[in-house]
Amino acid sequence: MKICALIPAFNEAPYIAKIVEETREHVAAVVVIDDGSSDGTAQLALAAGATCLGLQVNCGKSSALRMGIHYAQANGFTHVITLDGDGQHLPLDIPAMLRVAEETGADMVIGARPFARDLMPRSRYYSNTIGSRLASALIGCEIKDSQSGFRLLRIDKLSKIKLRSQRYEIEMEVLIKMAQSGCTFAHSPIHMVYFNDDAHSKLRPIRDTTRTCLWSLAYLFLGA
What we know:
The chain has helices at about 15-25, 40-45, 60-75, 95-105, 120-140, 155-160, 170-180, 205-220; strands at about 5-10, 30-35, 50-55, 80, 110, 150-155, 185-190. The chain is an alpha/beta fold. α1 links the parallel β1 (about 5-10) and β2. α5 runs parallel beside α8 (about 205-220) and α7 packs parallel to α8 (about 205-220). It starts with a strand and ends with a helix.
């Protein structure tokens, strides 16, 4: 496997250098897609050893990831691993995800968090568990963490689907469209990281989960 890590980032200056440095230990290349940051995120990522792609204005996570996927396709990588730039995903979990990919041959390995009610903010617990149950029902197989952005994916399978989403709904869009094309899924346990009872993530659990559910129905039934 020739793996490129893709890290979409919007104003992640406090965290991005450490994430880049730790991720570089496990993959062939780290690509940070700067989504219109104004805090020097791109410069810090470059200094830490990442290739940096840039969007001049904030376009959303999906737009940033699509740019990163096009880069990986054009540069001969066999897989991409996606993770967030806010410290919520730990690069130390990458080796286990690689092992699962090698052992199972899955087209996508999903980094699955342990949904322990007493360890998570209530809104995130319910948005994630409800979202994962919906995803499992729509796709027809168990998806343990539908909103996880920590994933390992085969480029040749990604290249066969057309991604249209703009923001956080990309996780469900990829799941649904890869399932429709006959792809296989596996899960790898990852750490769950919260800070002061919350995550650094910019996702808004109720609003963004509702948006994702509506878009999921459109992807599945309307061919969006």
